[in-house]
User: What shape does this take?
Amino acid sequence: MSRMIIVVACSFALAACSVSLPSLDFLKSSPSTAALRFESQPPGAEVTASGQTCRTPCELTIQVTELSATFALNGYQPQTIPVRSQTSGPLSSPRFEPNPVHANLQPVRVATPAKKRIKKKPPTAASHEDSPAPISPAAPAASAPAAPTSAPPPTLPDDKK
Assistant: This one.
């Protein structure tokens, strides 16, 4: 009879090995993902985060970790914003902070080339000789006949000669 108990016990043990236990995969910690929304002013900027890209306003599903989101738009300075992962409690799922991620893009100030200014050269002595002398209102004109500076000698009557 003891042999019979041993055979039955071994049968149950063998049967138990062939029965699979339910999967305990839910206990494994797999990286969780969450939706992360991106906005920009002006809209239409290209956002790159965790190797994924989209144009604002948009949303990406990303693994919840610490990351940086870079916004780029032609004519505007690129901007990088850090994004943190947060968990509220032990049973809550991780989430992104901030969400949505918003960027105010600043226009690029393009330095315009300076206009060439033509410097006026100061007059030199040679240029004064070539130009006619200015006429002053007090000086008589060169072409006008000179006025007599003294009166003609008085004439004496004929009887006193």
Q: What stands out?
A: The first helix runs from residue 2 to 18. DSSP finds two helices and eight strands in the chain.
